[in-house]
């Protein structure tokens, strides 16, 4: 079991990728973190090299060999369809993954670990589903919506990789719905409404995962070897009406149980919730996964149960407006950059990333060795 | 309005100063159920002295009062969202609220006699297997009440998968402890030392016409035996007599059933002619017999892979139940009086 040294993270412009990169930066054993995405990360990363590249491009393979990447974390799957058009989602999820995994499984590829962030949505939500899904079970009816079909296909590529490269560690993590202060999910938007539209006559069982716990699990999968598929969700189960009560909102039983998806489509027109058909089905029939395998294998103690995640989320949402007014972190970061550039020190990367899929990493902050003391207070934790 | 007044007066009360009219109103509001209860109790005693028999049944009265209390309690709890359901969606508090009502039905309406309850284990898991009848699965409820009275345990019935797509019923049944009849669900519940109730006849049992009453249908494919063998738990066969007559199903309108998504659309002497009133079941006299458990642990989990063995046990259980039905029916002189 070789150590994880050089990590490549996809989808760093969104929650999963950038939060993971930030966590991994704290581990001195990891020499290098390469982050690729079409867009820049939303938060300040200190020793992550950001490359503006499209994972659909075949140059990814060259990048892997050139940088001798041993671990690839595919955190770039779009599971929140409001963020992009359906075609874009398909392109990123299916074609992107296919290309990335093709690059990883090439004969010359130095990759010996692949961690893929998937979603428990692959199990679907049907009225006659088993009450609790374990990793080995598969849905009986094929998915009807494109998103879940895509996800299925993505998992197929991952399985192919694990068969083709048995010596490599392949970890497939299926995450339940995440809630937290920074990650805006369809459920977070739903719970922001004062009257939450639900399907009349249905009160499904749901599981939530706190965003910190989600990243902890992802981090653990990168640092240690956990081959296999794992469900990840907070412990315990809530029913939807309970979740709404915990959030202090009103349960508006608005959607008819026949044609709920259609009505939700109309609601989405008025309030952009991003509730795709598969999520509306989820709102009607729910889903619970067995997390026993993850709890047994992973050396991570999830800090929030499902209900604690909701309570915590509700607490933070109540003061959201006040906190947002106070928030000026990003501004400070930019100011700092500006001042630094005025001093003429290293600020190479922040805005100079290349637009095309170039295999030339642009250092955002390669502090340790090329360090010139631009931010000395950060140095010890990065080098040691 | 009255609620707000009540809280403000409580506050004042706790401060120790001020005993105005509001405070006395509040205490009246608080003591009313107790006062009413004791008054009715006295009345019941007097009536018994005068007439020489129980005109008002105190036990049932207590049940009625506790239903009110528990519903109020449950509602406040649910408003705050601070309650726990298990992974199957079972809410013990919710089930506890339902218990007094169904106990009343058990004792007063169907006057259920349960025999052989000692065969239900006090702890540890078991698979309860029963005949199924009566259009609506009320026989399951009565078995659950019988077991709850004896052991204080909640039975976890396996319900037909089509219930999952039914509004209201889908969450109601889960909240009350039911779960879909999926093999994985069954094994999980049995591994957690639960009492799982299964009706191998399924909807074929509840939806059979009146003229075929007390004739057991096929016991599925013996899946329940497989589960019991894999989990190594005893099978407790149960015969329920009386449930067949609660809704005498004269005809089954299949086209309408197909339209509404139900497995059958029953026509009874009262339904659908009397509208919602037709849903009131007939007050038959019930008898539930719990038979000697069939042990499965000595065969080992491997036996579950042998279909012929599974079918043999399945038939054995079926025969026990059918035999129990026949014996009970022989002793029953009247459908309504027992």
Walk me through the structure:
The complex is a heterodimer of chains A (384) and B (338). Chain A has 384 residues and is α/β, with parallel strands linked by helices. Chain A has 15 helices and 13 strands. With 338 residues, chain B is an alpha/beta fold. Chain B folds into two domains: 1-12 and 20-56; 92-246 and 281-331, Glycerol-3-phosphate (1)-acyltransferase (3-Layer(aba) Sandwich), CATH 3.40.1130. Chain B is 48% helix and 10% strand. In chain B, helix 6 (169-175) links the parallel strand 3 (155-159) and strand 4. The interface between A and B is medium-sized, with 31 and 29 residues.
Can you tag this structure with a few keywords?
heterodimer, A: about 375 residues, alpha/beta, 7-stranded parallel β-sheet, two-stranded parallel ribbon, 15 helices, globular, B: about 350 residues, Glycerol-3-phosphate (1)-acyltransferase, 2 domains, 7-stranded mixed β-sheet, two-stranded antiparallel ribbon, 9 strands, about 50% helix
């Amino acid at each position: 079991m070789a150590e994880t040294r050089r990590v490549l993270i996809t989808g760093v412009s969104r929650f999963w990728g950038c939060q993971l990169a930030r966590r991994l930066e704290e581990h001195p054993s990891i020499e290098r973190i390469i982050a690729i995405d079409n867009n820049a990360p939303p938060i300040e990363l200190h020793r992550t090299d950001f490359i503006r590249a499209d994972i659909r491009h075949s140059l990814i393979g060259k990048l892997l060999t050139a940088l001798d990447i041993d671990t690839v974390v595919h955190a770039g799957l779009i599971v929140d369809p409001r963020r992009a058009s359906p075609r874009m989602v398909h392109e990123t999820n299916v074609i992107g993954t296919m290309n990335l995994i093709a690059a990883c499984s090439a004969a010359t590829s130095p990759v010996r670990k692949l961690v893929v962030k998937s979603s428990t949505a692959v199990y679907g939500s049907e009225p006659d589903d088993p009450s609790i899904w374990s990793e080995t079970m598969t849905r009986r009816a094929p998915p009807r919506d494109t998103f879940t079909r895509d996800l299925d296909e993505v998992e197929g590529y991952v399985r192919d990789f694990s068969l083709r490269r048995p010596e490599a560690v392949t970890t497939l993590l299926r995450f339940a719905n995440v809630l937290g202060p920074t990650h805006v999910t369809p459920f977070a938007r739903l719970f922001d409404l004062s009257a939450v539209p639900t399907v009349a006559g249905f009160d499904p069982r749901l599981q939530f995962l706190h965003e910190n716990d989600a990243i902890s699990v992802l981090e653990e999968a990168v640092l240690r070897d956990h081959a296999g598929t794992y469900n990840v969700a907070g412990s315990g189960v809530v029913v939807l009406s309970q979740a709404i009560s915990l959030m202090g909102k009103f349960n508006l039983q608005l959607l008819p149980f026949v044609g709920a998806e259609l009505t939700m489509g109309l609601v989405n027109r008025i309030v952009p919730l991003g509730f795709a058909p598969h999520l509306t089905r989820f709102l009607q029939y729910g889903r619970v996964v067995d997390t026993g395998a993850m709890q047994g294998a992973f050396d991570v103690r999830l800090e929030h149960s499902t209900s604690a995640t909701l309570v915590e989320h509700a607490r933070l949402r109540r003061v959201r407006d006040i906190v947002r007014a106070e928030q000026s972190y990003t501004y400070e970061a930019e100011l700092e950059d500006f001042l630094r550039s005025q001093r003429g020190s290293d600020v190479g990367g922040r805005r100079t990333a290349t637009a095309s899929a170039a295999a030339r990493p642009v250092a955002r902050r390669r502090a340790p060795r090329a360090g010139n003391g631009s931010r000395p207070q950060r140095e010890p934790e990065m080098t040691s | 309005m009255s609620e707000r007044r009540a809280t403000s007066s409580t506050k004042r009360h706790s401060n120790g100063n001020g005993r105005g009219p509001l405070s006395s109103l509040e205490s009246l509001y608080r003591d009313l159920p107790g006062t009413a209860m004791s008054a009715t109790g006295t009345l019941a005693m007097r009536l018994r002295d005068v007439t020489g028999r129980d005109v008002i049944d105190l036990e049932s009265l207590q049940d009625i009062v506790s239903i009110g209390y528990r519903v109020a309690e449950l509602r406040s709890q649910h408003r705050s969202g601070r309650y726990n359901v298990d992974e199957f969606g079972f809410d013990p508090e919710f089930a506890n609220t339902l218990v007094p009502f169904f106990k009343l039905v058990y004792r007063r309406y169907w006057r259920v006699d349960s025999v052989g309850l000692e065969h239900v284990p006090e702890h540890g898991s078991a698979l309860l297997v029963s005949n199924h009848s009566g259009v609506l699965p009320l026989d399951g409820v009565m078995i659950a009440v019988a077991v709850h009275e004896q052991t204080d345990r909640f039975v976890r019935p396996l319900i037909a998968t089509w219930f999952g797509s039914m509004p209201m019923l889908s969450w109601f049944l889960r909240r009350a402890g039911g779960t879909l009849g999926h093999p994985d669900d069954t094994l999980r519940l049995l591994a957690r030392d639960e009492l799982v109730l299964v009706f191998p006849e399924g909807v074929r049992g509840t939806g059979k016409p009146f003229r075929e009453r007390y004739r057991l249908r096929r016991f599925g494919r013996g899946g329940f035996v497989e589960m019991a063998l894999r989990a190594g738990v005893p099978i407790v066969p149960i015969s329920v007599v009386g449930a067949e007559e609660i809704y005498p199903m004269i005809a089954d309108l299949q086209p309408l059933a197909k339209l509404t998504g139900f497995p059958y659309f029953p026509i009874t002497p009262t339904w659908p002619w009397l509208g919602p009133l037709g849903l009131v079941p007939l007050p038959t006299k019930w008898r539930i017999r719990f038979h000697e458990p069939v042990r499965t642990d000595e065969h080992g989990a491997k036996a579950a892979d042998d279909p012929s063995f599974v079918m043999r046990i399945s038939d054995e259980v079926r025969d026990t139940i059918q035999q129990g039905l026949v014996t009970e029916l022989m002793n029953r002189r009247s459908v309504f009086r027992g």
